[in-house]
Amino acid sequence: MPGEIVPAGSAPGPSALPALRASHADRDRVVAMLGVAAGDGRLTADELDQRVEAALSARTVGDLAALTADLPPISISTSGVPAESRDVLRIEQKFSRLERTGGWVLPRRLELAAEWCNVTLDFTQAVITQDTLEIDVDMQGGNLTLIVGPGITVDPYGLTLEFSKIKNQYAPDPGTPVRLRIELIGKKGFGRIRVRGPRRWGTRRS
Q: What is the pTM of this model?
C-alpha cells in the first residue's frame, strides 16, 4: 500500500496507471520509437506494420508500453524525432518554485541544487534517453516532488536525509517493464520528498 517508502525487497501493490487513457502524443511517440527500432534492424517490416497499427488504435498507456517492452530505450522528442541528451544537467534554484514538465529531454545525470523552494520534476512525458537516471540532490528546505508513471521506478536509498522524509504515493505495477530507474543520491535537509503518479480528474490534493 502506498505510504512511507519501505526497505528494498518489499512487494509493491497494484496500480491503475497502465489503464490510463493514451493521448495522441503518446501514440505518436510510440510510432516514432517503432520506426527508429525498425531502422536499427530490431523489427521486421511485418512486425513494424503490426505494431504501428496496434499503436494507432491503442486505448491505454499500458497497451502502448507492451509494444516497446522488448526494445531498448530510444530518445524521441515530442515532435517525433530522435533527441539528444546532455551528459550532466545542473539545476540551481533559490526561494522560488521550479518545475520541469512536458517533453523535456532527460540527461544522463541530473544535479539539483536548491534552497528553500519547491521543486517538481514530472517524468510522465519526458524523453527517456537511457534506462537509469541518477539525481544528485543538494537541497535545503522546501519540497521535492517526483511525478512518475508506468515503467518508472524510484530508488531513494543513496540519499541522506536530515530533518526530512520521503513519502511514496505511487505503487508501480509489477507486470509493467521498467524503462527508467531513477536513483537518488546526495542530501536533503528539511522539507520532504514525495513520489506520486499524475493527477487524475476527480482526485483531490493531499
A: 0.62
Q: What is the rounded CA–CA span in Å between residue 11 and residue 188?
A: 26
| Burial of 155 per CB tally in 10 Å (0-12, 13-18, 19+) | middle
205 domain residue, yes or no: no
Number of domains in the chain: 1
Q: Give 202's contacts (C-beta < 8 A, 6+ positions apart).
A: none
**Residue 78 has which C-alpha cell?**
515530442
Q: What is the pLDDT along the chain (206 residues), one digit of tens a residue?
A: 444 333 333 333 334 456 788 888 888 888 878 877 776 778 888 888 899 899 899 999 889 889 988 887 665 555 554 555 578 889 898 998 999 988 788 888 999 999 999 999 999 988 887 889 999 999 999 999 999 998 999 999 999 999 999 999 998 888 888 889 999 999 999 999 999 998 765 445 54
Asked whether 52 and 31 are in contact (CB, 8 A), the reply is: yes
CA distance 54 to 76: 19
In a domain, 203, yes or no: no
